[in-house]
Write a structure and sequence with these properties.
Two copies of one chain form a homodimer. The first copy, chain A, is mostly helical and about 150 residues long. The first copy, chain A, contains six helices and no strands. Chain A starts with a helix and ends in an 11-residue tail after the last helix. The first copy, chain A, binds a DNA duplex (30 and 30 nucleotides) through helix 2.
Chain lengths: ~150, ~150
DNA sequence: ATGCAAGTTGAAGTCAACTTCAAGTCAAGG
DNA sequence: CCTTGACTTGAAGTTGACTTCAACTTGCAT
């Protein structure tokens, strides 16, 4: 397959595919300078990247789970710890969602005065603050964790 | 309170507090050029920012829910739609978490050959790809300021 | 054989949310 | 009064994941 076919098939832009290849996340059969050709297995590789991203791995972390030839090579410990992080995150998001739903539905004039909202606010916010602090601890130099998108 | 007290109390660095003030997310009582003083209500304001961030709002979106004087002014429609997004996101994260847990525990030699893993991979990844495509649709020029994240 | 869309490259630009820097100001202790 | 350390400002730098650009090459259709 050529790059535009893969792009069309997966929805991943050609520029991203080139970028992923440079980062060692996917493999192509190209001689340098000529047009890339992708084996069908690139679809699996892209799926793995997508899964990793969805799980909150950086591209470097995803690559660390691939062998030189592009096959997966799983670091169980990293995955298990990411799963735990996900658990926590899911719980926090659920609390936030409750907060939003309440805020959107609650008829109180000012939410500053609605006790239910204040309670959810405090819970969700303190969770968020804790999380911020944890992240700062992991990066003691103070470099920003670039968005918890 | 002065800026370092607020920082200590909330865990939000002083630099961030200044940044938030410049962005109109929190208010201070300072005459320009002198030292900032914060009213206790700044803690509520910060909680609201944290909640918004946790819910996936951009700082601009958070600010759009504040009146000029810094009191919350909630856009129910935006909140409700963010709650729906959160629902979706939570479901996707749950699927991803299942995938991770399985990958971390599954004894198959190569995960490429484990059918359970392949199924979860496909599900989680396709969800992730769909999401990517949706986000790209919302940003057609690539220059739009309204981050959906 | 030729035109031109589609591909190639490295380098530079973008974005959000901060952080860091340089240069200067203020306030309290000694 | 003077030092010192916490504070002030605007400007510039950082991060990760891409995208865009400029300047060429390729390869299919005519």
């Amino acid at each position: 397959m050529d790059i535009s076919q893969v792009a069309k098939l997966t929805g991943v832009p050609a520029s991203t595919l080139r970028y992923y290849e440079k980062r060692g996340l996917i493999t192509s059969l190209a001689a340098r300078g000529t047009r890339r050709r992708f084996a069908p297995s690139v679809l699996d590789q892209l799926a793995l990247v997508a899964l990793g991203q969805a799980a909150g791995l950086s591209l470097d972390e995803v690559r660390s789970m691939l062998t030189a030839n592009g096959r997966p090579n799983i670091n169980r410990q990293l995955l298990a710890s990411k799963a735990i992080e996900l658990d926590t995150r899911i719980r926090q998001l659920s609390a936030v969602r409750r907060g939003l739903r309440h805020a959107a539905a609650c008829p109180a004039r000012s939410h500053a005065e609605c006790p239910t909202f204040r309670k959810l606010l405090k819970a969700a916010a303190s969770g968020a603050l804790d999380r911020q602090q944890r992240e700062r601890k992991l990066k003691p130099t103070g470099k920003s964790p670039a968005g918890t998108r």
